[in-house]
Records
---
Amino acid sequence: MSEPTPESVRPAYRRVLLKLSGESFTRPGQTGISMEEVSKVAAQAKRVADRGVELAIVVGGGNIIRGAHFSRAGEIVTQATAHYMGMLATVLNGLALQDALEHLKVPTRLQTAIRMEGVAEPYIRRRCVRHLEKGRIVILAAGTGNPFVTTDTAAALRAKEIEAQILLKATRVDGVYSADPEANPHAMLYDRLGYEQVLRDNLQVMDMTATGMCMDNHLPILVFNFTKEGNIERAIAGERIGTLVGEPRR
């Protein structure tokens, strides 16, 4: 008897928030936007939406500029300005993903935490939820609109606001390891972690503020490799992939 495909398994979640880092929008080791890579993400997102799952996506901008790193280049650009530049970079990625989704005939809305009505809707929680209820994928850009706040924290905040059942952290590795798997071939891949262990061991699942927010609100985090075909659907189907961060086993 053949194993069920991701498409044949009933989704385990009704509403999810997917966090895509800037590296999702470009080829490994490169910068800028690769529409080939964006189209791959869009195709997976479409299959999720086609199964009736309400999907919100928070996008990063590190493929274009990392505000925290840019500000270290000198004192000409202040840290606050560099962070705003990073937030604007997420809007560029959001626009690219929106067009890729609409090319696939997927109803989509781009909302930003920094008001720019000529480009996108302002983020309004009730409006975002209404779009999701109508089957639209909502792309959330510009973080929280505040400097010194990461897109990881923005993802945790938005997930709680829209009452998502899980936060999916998409990466290019299979989950959370005990050490850098590229530097240490003996690094162990965790199947499941408690929030407190992540914070205590500084395992870099998300930044500490984001992890703490998820812990306080009992919001599970699934860290998984989105580059493997079908993994986003598998994650939403509740299959055992990646590393699940949540309440410790009793």
Note: The domain at 6-246 is CATH 3.40.1160.10 (Carbamate kinase).
---
Amino acid sequence: MKYKRILLKLSGEALMGEQGHGIDPLVVTLIADQVKAIQAQGVEVGLVIGGGNIFRGVAGATKGMDRVTADHMGMLATMINSLALQDALEKQGVHTRVMSAIEMNQVAEPFIRRRAIRHLEKDRVVIFGAGTGNPYFSTDTAASLRAMEIKAEVIMKATKVEGIYDSDPVKDKDAKMFDTITFTDVLKLGLRVMDATAISLCRENNLPILIFNLNTHGNIRRVCLGEKIGSIVTA
């Protein structure tokens, strides 16, 4: 394996499959199967999952809801997804811990950096829920922050498309995909890879971001092996 420790970022929408909302148990099982495959080959895996399949704070705020309240609701949505993935992983025999940025001791451990690293060293998959625990910060930013805290070698962001394009590949058939691109160019071109805060954080700490298609089964293992799949953002 090319990487020893990774931070895998999943969108909440990735869990809903074709049903349009909520959680599709089959999709969650397929993701767990891929995570198990790389973990069995010695890759230490941290995970951050969005909550867009259940509730998105920004969307709530645009409809008149208080932004802080909406963001807290979004954090709780990420915890629902985290518990669903934990269940799927443990059914496949993978030891998993969910760590929450906001206290909910009955369902998850509080996030403590040293404990998280210890879990990884003991071959446990660690799922980081509730974002950063602060409103106004996305789960992209949470992924960047947690990746640096656990000293991950790369952030792997799983999406619905093959990589980073200069325009929306769904709407534009002539969209060009980048194999590699710099953090600065991502910000200059306004590419929707991750939000600007997350990109800036990765740029300042020289943490590469690898974007790839989750819908092709086995891609998580392929990117961990170092195969040229997707797009990579570097300094």
Note: The chain has a mean pLDDT of 93.
---
Amino acid sequence: MPAKILVVDDETSQRELLSEMLGIEGYLVDCASDGRRAELILRSSSPDLVLLDVNLPYRDGFELCRVIREDPDLRLIPVVLVTGLTEAEDRLRGIEAGADDFLSKPFDRAELRARVRSLLRRKEYTDELDRADQVLMALGRSIEAKDPYTEGHCARISEYSVLLGQELQLSSDDLRALRIAGSVHDIGKIGVPDAILLKKGPLLLEEWEIMRDHTVIGERICSPLRSFHPVLPIIRSHHEKQDGSGYPDGLRADRVPLLARVMQLADVFDALTTERSYKHAVDTGAALAQMQIEVEKGWWDPALFRVFVRLVADGHFRHLAPALNAIA
């Protein structure tokens, strides 16, 4: 498919000129005359490249560039600032806003062609990485699909974890890691035989040893992707406990990564409040009471658990699991 390029300029002659030049090269071109219209196109069509004028009505190029960089769905789109501004300060503002390149007016056709091709090659590479990310996330969800009792588990703990992370005012990168980890935290169970994974009743000691390996296997599966590196500590450590009795490394207290501590609360809560092949679901109050006992045993982070309880009590999770009973 031809690459899609969005040209944003308030001058009709500049839009027409760029459209003609890029169309000759075989690209699909869309245009916007102001920042507001450009943002609508960005969110509806997700172009492969944006050629962005600095001086625009409603929202200037610097501001729109920052919007692109702060949106997880848009942040990988290359942005070229097309401007007549030549001052170093203006270029610095563009770099701080997240621009990938600059093109000065009046621009040279050969330079335009070279810069566009270079950035589109990079975009193709990042798209390939993104597709690899999606494959791993789909693989993680396929583990869930093996067991009808765990339907929706990945989506729920992603949302529980992100809501808790937002309450803790974690960074956008940490929230992204939590969301991804919801889908892939148990991806290592692909190495666990179905006879063990779907067994009704308690596991034998040797079966339990095989099950415990899923955290290390999952880390190994995801480690080749650089974009998954922030997720690896969650995958490996979400079964650790504050008292050191967890696995695979027997970490204690703050040595258990913060994001893993966040996700394990979501994981335990969802396991308690949903039907499983080996247990019945309990209501919200009973689940939190059981988790409180485990906090007192030294398993979960007590400070995080207090925040988690408040979120549940305030009804933040009700839309995710409508069957949950309110706390008595």
Note: The mean pLDDT is 86.
